[in-house]
Write a structure and sequence with these properties.
single chain, about 425 residues, alpha+beta, Beta-Lactamase, Helix Hairpins, 4 domains, five-stranded antiparallel sheet, five-stranded mixed sheet, 13 strands, about 55% helix, elongated, binds adenosine-5'-diphosphate
């Protein structure tokens, strides 16, 4: 059908004019003959146009176009082929969409697409079971209206999705879900939600086990150390040769007690996400007390401890937890700084919030240890740590307390020259008003 339709059309018109001219020759009315011929042609053309119009408007999906003659037939066929091709492409696309939808529906993880304002655009079936979204009523709803957990709202609005968030499912408290948000395209969000109930339960069992064991060990240990102290006090009546052994046993006993206390504190910190008390804490007074304790710990080692704290700059949170964290940092500085060394404690505020830094002129830490320093029982040098009587849990406690106070720990150190541990708290964590 690769005809040259220009030439054919011109040939047809010439033929029509010739026939009209012959008609004019026979009848003697050239003008009328020509006009009649062209009118007939125009009428036929209009008729074809109407047929095309009717077919386009009313045809069934698979209905072939009406038969047409000449150029009109070609137009009908071309439109029909275009339509068929379009249908085939659409069918293929639909098949791809169906497969994607089937596979995402079969997923056990929820997949949710949100627009740039955080409104629901699309979600799979698992989103209904994990988060309770209703199809189609919830389409276009802000996700924070449907997942109402305060930590989700805070997480979503902070727009820092580097770490996933774990919360109880909005429809079932016993389900624990982990949410990952990724931004794509024009600031749209893709949210993946996994059921982590099992992992959470195992983690919970581990925490409970450690807490229970620590708790159970406390009483026997108290009895043992109590008797050891009594024996030590009366060692001359028993056998003076045991004095050294009893002394070491008492020392190790109290080390175990500190370890159990730290383990219990960590278990308590892990039990809930945020501290139960959210009182304004006067950090300057807290640091003054910690400084005095540090001075006592330093004793004859004569380290120079200085404190510069902005008065009235208060933090929201738990005083006892903050005391544990800050004193761990300051006591570490005392432990890991040579005699006569300097330790500088600073507490100040700026537009980013409030900051506490503990800077020492001590042994310092090699850069390769820094990322692992807050892990439980991680020690740079185990022989040195056992001399200092540390439990290896101090910085883990600091990390947990800071997490619960929405703070961050920054560590910088130059081996041989000293270390600086800085806690950063956001402006939202500051308590307004005067101390
Ligand atoms: P520990 O009870 O052993 O001090 P921490 O968790 O408090 O345990 O600290 C972990 C390790 O980090 C310590 O063993 C020590 O090697 C190192 N460390 C902590 N603070 C300092 C510091 N101020 N200077 C040098 N090393 C430090």
């Amino acid at each position: 059908m690769n005809q040259n339709w220009h030439a054919t059309l011109i040939r047809h018109l010439l033929l029509l004019i010739t026939v009209c001219l012959i008609g004019g020759l026979v009848s003697g009315y050239y003008g009328w003959s020509l006009a009649t011929g062209l009118a007939l042609y125009l009428g036929w053309t209009l008729k074809q146009l109407l047929r095309l119009h009717d077919w386009l408007r009313n045809h069934q999906p698979d209905e072939a176009p009406p038969d047409g003659y000449g150029l009109w037939g070609e137009v009908f066929d071309s439109i029909y082929h275009l339509q068929r091709r379009d249908q085939r492409v659409r069918g293929r696309l639909q098949a791809v969409i169906d497969r994607v939808q089937e596979s995402t529906a079969a997923l056990r993880d929820a997949v949710i697409m949100l627009d740039s304002d955080g409104n629901l655009e699309w979600w799979n079936r698992a989103a209904e079971t994990l988060l309770g979204f209703k199809t189609p009523q919830d389409g276009g709803q802000p996700v924070t209206n449907l997942v109402r957990h305060p930590r989700f709202k805070e997480y979503f609005e902070a727009e820092n999705y580097a770490e996933p968030l774990e919360i109880p499912s909005p429809i079932n408290d016993r389900l624990r879900v982990q949410l990952h948000i990724t931004r794509y395209g024009n600031n749209e969000h893709l949210m993946l939600v996994r059921d982590v109930t099992r992992i959470h339960q195992l983690e919970q069992m581990r925490k409970d086990f450690v807490a229970n064991v620590s708790h159970e060990l406390r009483t026997p240990l108290t009895v043992i150390t109590g008797y050891l102290e009594t024996l030590l006090d009366n060692v001359d009546d028993v056998n003076p040769r045991w004095a050294r052994a009893l002394q070491q046993m008492t020392q190790q006993g109290s080390r175990m007690q500190t370890l159990l206390n730290d383990l219990l504190l960590l278990a308590k910190l892990e039990a809930t996400d945020y501290p139960s008390d959210n009182q304004p804490v006067a950090v300057d007074a807290l640091l003054t007390a910690i400084k005095q304790d540090a001075q006592a710990l330093s004793g004859p080692r004569n380290q120079k401890i200085t404190l510069e704290a902005v008065p009235g700059l208060r933090l929201k949170g738990s005083e006892s937890e903050l005391r544990s964290a800050f004193s761990n940092l300051v006591f570490n500085a005392v432990k890991y700084t040579q005699d006569e060394g300097t330790i500088r404690i600073r507490w100040w505020g700026d537009e980013h919030g409030a900051h506490l830094s503990v800077q020492d002129s001590g042994v310092g830490i090699d850069a390769k240890h820094l990322p692992r320093l807050t892990e439980r029982f991680y020690r740079v040098d185990s022989s040195r740590a056992s001399n200092t009587g540390g439990t290896g849990l101090g910085l883990a406690i600091v990390k947990h307390v800071l997490m619960r106070h929405r703070g961050k720990l920054e560590i910088s150190s130059v081996p041989g020259h000293g270390s600086t541990f800085t806690c950063h708290f956001g402006p939202a964590q500051l308590a307004n008003g005067k101390a």
